[in-house]
Structures are given as structure tokens and as C-alpha cells.
Queue: 2 jobs
Job 1
Amino acid sequence: MNPLVILGAQESGVGAARLAKQRGLDVFVSDAGTIKPKYRDELLRLGIDFEENGHSAERVLALPAAS
């Protein structure tokens, strides 16, 4: 599965994550702040992995190099 990291879990970030998940991508969402409950609930409902209150560099940078 192709991985995708999305920075920011507000309306556009969650919308992008939803679309990417529908397209079969392995999505991870990272937000530097606290995710609003309605967006957190949507990520949970969709089974999209996420983190909040900071970006973990090892997770965000774990994407394979493009060739």
C-alpha cells in the first residue's frame, strides 16, 4: 500500500486524508496542535492513524524514497 503523510488535521487535512484512504493509500495524519473532536472522531471512524500535539519526525519522515 502506498503511504501518505498529511500535516494538519483541520477541514482540508482531514478531507485529503479521507480522499487518500478512499483511493487505497496508507494514510497518517500529524497535527502540531490538538485536533478538534469532530475531526478526531472522523479519523477514528475512518480508521486513519493520526497523532496530535506534535509531529514525530521518525513517523513523518519514514516514507520510502521516490525512485
Note: The first helix runs from residue 11 to 22.
Job 2
Amino acid sequence: MPLHLHPLLAIPIWRQLRHLGGVGLILLGVADNSVIPLTGSMDVLTIWLAARHRQPWPYYALMATLGAVIGGYITYSLARKGGKETMERKLSKRRAARVCKAFERWGFGAVAVPALLPPPFPFVPFLLAAGAMQYSRKKFLAALTLGRGVRYSIVAGLGFHYGNHILRFFSRYYKPAVAVLVGLALIGATLTLIQYLRSRKK
């Protein structure tokens, strides 16, 4: 199946984002680093754009990183302003305490390492923890840029060299792939809503 007919990328919102190219990656990055992340979406779009070779693949890695950093900084700023109460409204108290403990221990690495890891590893809790615990803006941005920069450089490079093979595989198994992505997004949204309602009730 040709790349432009890949079912996931044929969804209207995806069609608009892929036509925007690097700008689409920035917009998607902002959304993906919100409290309701779009699991795997950035990787798929980065691979697809790099595979088309309209721009050198480092350009797409840069745009994906920029979008992720902007989105991550927005989430960090909101948590920084609201403090731990904001984080506990988004997460359960138990989960918030666990993330804070990891953050107190690792600091810079608690942002950089999760930023590097692929989905479905949850990253937003670490953005919230960094803000809620008043972590240094400069260190936060440095860690986030490092982690996301390395990750999307790898993803874009793979897209450039092996994009056709990768997307051919997903085209062949597009139904389960789409089902998994949609399912993960719905699960994330549902869990976020449940945690929010519980915090409001308390």
C-alpha cells in the first residue's frame, strides 16, 4: 500500500498535519505533551514525514523536538503555578507521591530519561512533577530538549532509512495498529477523567 494511502495517516486530522509538515509536528507535539497524550502519534508522523524526504530528516527531528518542548513547557508551567495540588488533581495521590519520589532521587534524569523512552511509557506525570516541585526552568528545558532531541533524531533517522518498510508493515496490519492507538488514547483519556473526578469529589 502506498504511503499516502496508509489508513492512520488518511484520518482527516492526520491528513492536515502531514500536509503541514514540520509545522504539523509542532502542533501535534504541543497536544501530545498535554495531560491527555496522543500515544505514538508523534513517532508515526515523524517517521512518515522523514520517509517522504521532502526535507532532510534532521529538520523533522528538530520540529518534533520543538513541538514536544513547547508542549512539555506548557504542562510544566501549569503545574508549577498550581503546585502539588494541581498534580494530585491530574494524578492519584499515590501515583503523584511515587513520581515525586523518583523525581527527588533522579532530578535531571527524571525528565531526560522518560523523554527518551518510547510509548507507552507515561511521560506527562514527570512533566507535572517537575513543575509542581518547582524544578529549575533551565534544567527542565535542558533535560526535556536532550531527551526528546535524541528520541526524535533516532525516530526520524529510522524513518529516512527504513520508512517505507516500516509503514508497509503497518499498512499490512493497519487494523490492529489503529485499534491499539485509539484504545491507548481512550484509556488515557478515561483514566485522566476518573482521576480528575475523584480529586474533585475529595
Note: The two ends are 51 Å apart (CA to CA).
